[in-house]
Specification:
Length: 339
């Protein structure tokens, strides 16, 4: 599913994001004020902010994983959004299981936080979104930088043994790889999904497959993307790989091989899945279910996931043993604890 308020099938809400040549051009993030201590920046305060994210959305999934890895549960509230058809399209819901609106804001939909911050807002409300619970408005939906803010601006609130996912001496390299991962891996899946021309689809497909081959080679002798320890880049790659395995691969086109056809990438993904913060925030069956819905035309050819999503033991599959530890000089530790 898209990370905006849109149906899992094509929606009129993304028509402005389709170029004349059929390429998907993602809308820019609306709220990009950074967290920090500088003038005009968002000051980090315990309990002031809440992170909204969706199980199916890899942009927001990486924020939820990093939040737990760093032990920010006590400073940053979190809620998984629901989805409801509203006025002919889909909206992210923030009400509870009984349908009661958020206790602090009184809102039932994520877009209400957007309207409070930007009166007259007409775009797509997206996840992840961080809202200010005191001012009752959205303040940041910059998925490009959000995990980096958790790793830096939230440092004083991290748990004592929090891992250093963004080592200062490696930030330039991590940033460069993240910039490459976005168009070639993370957004390439959406470029295929929302393309409206075969040329646009093929371009995204080739970018994605070439990137997988490069990463497969990179991980031949490295346990993680930058060696022995997990970094911010690994989180960004992981969230797309798990979705490709359980969902995207089955409906995005004809691939020569799936994730299991890449020895290193498949073992690498399972290695990360054993880390509690990754496992706790990866809803494999829900992801498969989201991408298994019959489209609104009522097709008579339902997808594999539509038929069998609840019969596959994804946790068992992703828990299969792998020997990635043999590549590490510090095999008992996947996370570099910050000093």
């Amino acid at each position: 599913m898209s990370c905006g308020e849109a149906a899992p099938t094509y929606s009129v809400q993304i028509k402005e994001e389709i170029a004349k040549d059929g390429r998907f051009i993602r809308q820019p993030n609306l709220f990009t004020t950074p967290f920090g201590e500088g003038e005009g920046e968002l000051k980090v305060e315990k309990g002031r902010y809440k992170l909204y994210w969706a199980k199916g959305c890899h942009w927001s999934n990486r924020a939820s994983i990093v939040r737990e890895l760093l032990g920010l549960e006590d400073v940053l509230d979190v809620q998984i959004v629901g989805r409801e058809k509203l006025n002919g399209t889909y909206a992210w819901t923030v009400y509870d299981e009984e349908g009661n609106p958020d206790k602090q804001s009184g809102y039932k939909y994520l877009f209400e936080y957007y309207e409070a911050a930007k009166p007259g807002f007409t775009g797509r409300a997206t996840v992840p979104t961080v809202v200010d619970q005191i001012e009752k408005k959205a303040v940041n939906n910059d998925y490009h930088k959000l995990t980096n803010y958790f790793e830096t601006a939230f440092k004083a609130y991290q748990k004592k043994d929090a891992p250093d996912l963004y080592p200062e001496e490696q930030r330039e390299e991590i940033d460069a790889l993240n910039e490459w991962l976005f168009p070639n891996i993370n957004n390439a899946t959406y470029r295929m999904m929302f393309s409206r021309s075969l040329e646009a689809y093929n371009e995204a497909y080739q970018d994605f497959v070439k990137a997988l081959e490069y990463l497969e080679e990179r991980l031949e002798n490295n346990r993680f993307l930058f060696g022995d320890y997990v970094t911010d880049s690994d989180v960004r790659l992981y969230v797309t790989l798990v979705r490709w395995e359980v969902a995207y691969y089955r409906f995005l086109g004809t691939f020569e091989k799936g994730l299991r056809g890449y020895k290193n990438l498949w073992a690498y993904t399972r290695d990360l899945y054993t880390i509690p913060a990754f496992r706790h925030n990866t809803y494999l069956s829900d992801i498969a279910h989201d991408y298994g819905a019959i489209d609104e035309s009522g097709t008579h050819f339902p997808t594999f996931n539509y038929r069998y999503w609840n019969e596959v033991d994804y946790d068992k599959i992703f828990s299969e043993p792998q020997n990635r530890r043999d590549l590490s000089l510090d095999p008992d530790h996947k996370l570099l604890v910050a000093e």
